[in-house]
Amino acid sequence: MLGAIAGDIIGSVYEFADHKTKDFPLFTDDSIFTDDTILTVAVADVLLHGGSYTEAFKRYYRRYPTPCGGYGARFQDWASSADSQPYNSWGNGSAMRVSPVAYAHQDLASVLRAAEKTAVVTHNHPEGIKGAQATAAAIFLARQGQNKDMIKQYVETTFGYNLSRSLDQIRPGYQFNESCQETVPEAIISFLESTSFTDAIRNAVSLGGDADTLTCITGSMAEAFYGDVPEAIADRVWELLPEHLKTIIVQFKAAYMPLLKAPTTP
Fold first, then answer.
1. Residue 19 domain-assigned (yes or no)
2. Is the N end or the C end of the chain the one with fewer CB atoms within 10 Å?
């Protein structure tokens, strides 16, 4: 889960920059957490303490309102209203917040059901559900020790995403896109081509798309596959988070990720 948050924060300054190279500083004075982090922690909160995702998302939105969050317009309308009905979104928001479910469940079928539950409260379009499930499945398989070829084959076979393109093929024509259809496959490919957690993050940013969400999704997979977030990155992320979010993260890691090292407290 911290890998997703690290990806969000690192990608935050490149979201509209159309950055097309792997050469960039991981953190700047403008690096911030966004809605990707906020709603990822909201999912973890529900898994820890119960309650509904609808109520949790609305509660976290009120606690961390825009412009802090950087939420999409449709989510803001939903979260700030009394309406609890989903709005049929296929946006990549369902995939960026799903990573905790891959640690809270111990078999793939349960992960897929849980991923759908996190999605449908807002993203009840089939593509929104698929994006969340594909992301959660890749994380789960990675943390179970499956190799990249197996993860690629499973995602392609089960969800129909084309993961055979290379980053070099994608990068020239790729533009900012907030759909699951054109974010989740690219994030997975960024992970598949990586040699380390940090390299995965650099891959995702270099595509020049919806950078914070691309790197959030990629980072969630890379953390599971490579075993942890590098200490220097984790400690910098820790400095940028409020105490409330850090408390939920620590509780979640203790409950579901005990073998992964928690960041040091500054």
1. yes
2. C
How far is CA 173 from its chain centroid? 23
What the block records as the tokens of 195 is 């040699």
Instruction: Confirm whether 264 is domain-assigned.
Output: no
Are the CB atoms for 184 and 151 separated by under 8 Å? no
**pLDDT digits over 50-108, tens only?**
999 999 999 999 999 977 778 989 999 999 999 999 999 999 999 999 999 999 999 99
Structure tokens at 149: 């070829």
Assess if residue 261 is contained within a domain: no
Q: How many domains does the chain have?
A: 1
CATH number of the domain where residue 124 is located: 1.10.4080.10
257 CA to centre of own chain: 17
Closest CA to 207 of 32, 54, 8, 22: 22
Domain carrying residue 14 = 2-256
Q: What is the DSSP string of 7-68?
A: HHHHHGGGTTS----S-S-S--TT----HHHHHHHHHHHHHHH---HHHHHHHHHHHS-TTT
> Considering the domain boundaries, does residue 119 fall inside one?
yes
**pTM of the full predicted structure?**
0.94
